[in-house]
Amino acid sequence: MTDFRIKKHPILPVPQDEPSISFSWQGRPMKARMGETVASALFANGVRIFGRHHKDGAPMGIFCANGQCAQCTVIADNRSVKSCMVPVHEGMSIWPLDAKAALPEYSPQLLFHAIETLDTECLICGGGPAGLSAAVELGKAGVTMTLVDDKPVLGGKLILQTHKFFGSIEACHAGTRGMDIAKALEQEARSYPNVRLWTASQVLAVFSDRKAGILREDRYFLIRPQILLVATGAREKSLVFKGNSLPGVYGAGAFQTLVNRDLIRPSENLFVVGGGNVGLIAAYHALQAGIKVKGLCEALPECGGYKVHKDKLARMGVPIYTSHTAVSANGEKEVESITIAALDKQWNIVPGTEKTFACDTVLVAVGLDPVDEFYHKAKEFGLPVFSAGDAEEIAEASAAMFTGRIRGKEIAKMLGRAVGEVPPEWHKTADILKSRPGAVTVEEIPGDEKGVFPVFHCSQEIPCNPCSSICPRSCIVIQGGDLMGLPAFNHANCTACGQCVAVCPGLAITLVDYRKAQELNSALVSIPYEFPGSTVKAGSTVTVLDTMGNVLGNVAVHSVRSSTTASKVLIVKVRAPFEIAKKIAGIRIQEPWVAEPLEEKIIRIDDDEIVCRCERVTAGQVRALIRKGVRDMNHLKAQTRAGMGSCGGKTCRNLIRRIFSEERIPPAEVTDFTKRPLFMEVPLGAFAGVYGGKGPAKEETQPRRVSALEGGV
């Protein structure tokens, strides 16, 4: 693989100009685009190993790409920085974080600024779907508020979502792509003069004097809110298996950041571990970016994500292995393959079921944990605090938007604004949007073979109604009268407008037209298509599949047109024999040979199942101490340094607790880590007002320059 930038994408606009920023990596000149992070710029230039661990020299690369860990740390302009959070600039000199590397000498001259304390009625931590939705409600109510987010662009994970959202059109923009929802919410929030939005700013801690410490563009502030809203989202869980710390093993969020935000093609062949919505959606995003998806494995007997997401992958040619887990990621310096195996009912690996797939990336998507540290610390110190979105409860972004609206209205009322009570139906809608996937029914294939009508290839109860909301003739109804019902055709006079086909977030509606059946000796079937139009043209032949991914046959493409209802959706109309027309659910994107396992099974020999990535502590080390009687995670930290790394135990805590569980230690007997007072890493000099000479903060009358020795920092 030599071209690491995405040159064309069916959904995202791709810049046509060449990268214009010059920087260097270990003295080698490279090019980047304006606004790219250091991590993305390195990936674009083919660099995936960012350094080596001081303990054993193990190669390190990105893992979360969200500022939650420290795996991607590099030396940029003589400063240690998280490469996923810092934008590259003209002339930047970047070196790996390697104890053996020869770095240029550095004699810093420190610049100080006065530390300001700002007052605000409400401080919102997090500018994702929940935070922005709350900001809109507070803006309407006239509340003076400040929203702080650590990314340069607001929207949180919404800006990584190229797919259309489920839920309700009225409640949460269902049928609209996540990235477009983010822009709409930000634009509305910015329209209120009482709303202050701070990007590229990190909330570091909540202190006992009820102030929050903020690092904004290299300068430190204190904010004193009357009420705090924590909408900080979630961080990804990790998984223990051999080779799990190799460069090329990383989270779904990191992958989506590289692909959908920065238009970097970080992989040629991908394997996904985890069958929740995050993993299923990330696999689909990979296909859209032209990346081969070798397969997806899920430990449970069935994928936990929406069935329409799973079905969509299956009919595009991606094999899904349920009751399987990752055994090892294999390779010397980077991922070269992955081995998976079946699990029995006791969650033990079944010998002889191992399969190895050649791949350069293993995407881990095994669940999320709420980022709720700020909420609990505010409660401890008596600061009035609310939480919304994933910081309150892990659910879909549609639910986060709606809970954000509710919290915004509740906070406005608490601050004395005349906003009235939260309508009871809001709480009901929020509960529905948080619902887990419901019952699966048998897909019903209509018996009719005349006229024109939609066929619904969704057979699981999920909160979704765009198809019924958008139909201009009310031909579609949601059974049961609420969002969780399945859609049905009410036999009204369908005009074949195709709006339902285009708007469906799960690409689970086709339109079958028999009106020209005698003339064409076949039925016309309209299929939604979110891939480049160059891959399918009128007169070409495509392979069509049913809902479960079974091949129905090869059919001719009658026409291809862009939808006027949903942007970037093509409606591919094919001529299909009568016996398969109503069964067609999609077009195969990936040929079967792409996903075939290797003939030789590869099992990594090294016992390197890493639990603590920062300190490279293995599962074996932790398990040995537990078997000696250790029940206090702080004792484990003292013995192994697990949890002592720069990320503050954000990833390893859950993995260690899982090992306790595997060793049959009751949770009540386990003492948790003592929480650190700061939740994000920060140079100590920031608390003294040290900054890098840029940023929006007010300076002292004349900035004073002192040496590092004089500054005492």
Mean pLDDT over all positions? 90
Quaternary organisation: single chain
**Beta-strand percentage range:** 15-25%
Tell how many strands the DSSP assignment holds.
38
Percent range of helical residues: 10-25%
Quick structural summary:
The chain is 21% helix and 25% strand.
Please characterize this protein's 3D structure.
The protein is α+β, with helices and mostly antiparallel strands. The chain folds into four domains: 21-104 and 238-364, FAD/NAD(P)-binding domain (3-Layer(bba) Sandwich); 117-234 and 370-433, FAD/NAD(P)-binding domain (3-Layer(bba) Sandwich), CATH 3.50.50.60; 452-595, no CATH class; 610-669, Arc Repressor Mutant, subunit A, CATH 1.10.10. It has 18 helices and 38 strands. Strands 9, 10, 11, 12, 13, 14 and 25 form a seven-stranded mixed β-sheet that branches. Strands 26-29-30-33-32-31-34 form a seven-stranded antiparallel β-sheet. The longest helix is centred in the middle third of the chain and has 18 residues, at 397-414.
List strands and helices in order, with pairings.
Elements: E1 21-25, E2 28-32, H1 38-44, E3 51-52, E4 59-60, E5 73-76, E6 79-82, E7 93-96, E8 109-112, E9 117-125, H2 129-141, E10 145-148, H3 169-172, H4 178-190, E11 195-198, E12 201-206, E13 212-216, E14 219-230, E15 234-236, E16 249-251, H5 252-261, E17 269-273, H6 277-288, E18 292-298, H7 307-314, E19 320-322, E20 324-330, E21 337-342, E22 355-358, E23 361-364, E24 368-370, H8 373-380, E25 385-387, H9 397-414, H10 424-433, E26 452-456, H11 466-470, E27 476-478, E28 487-489, H12 499-503, E29 509-513, H13 517-520, E30 523-529, E31 541-545, E32 551-562, E33 570-576, H14 578-581, E34 586-587, E35 610-612, E36 617-618, H15 619-627, H16 633-640, H17 652-662, E37 690-691, E38 705-707, H18 708-711
Parallel strand pairs: 1-7, 9-10, 9-14, 10-11, 14-25, 16-23, 17-18, 17-23, 18-19
Antiparallel strand pairs: 1-2, 3-4, 5-6, 5-7, 8-37, 8-38, 12-13, 13-14, 15-24, 20-21, 21-22, 26-29, 27-28, 29-30, 30-33, 31-32, 31-34, 32-33, 35-36
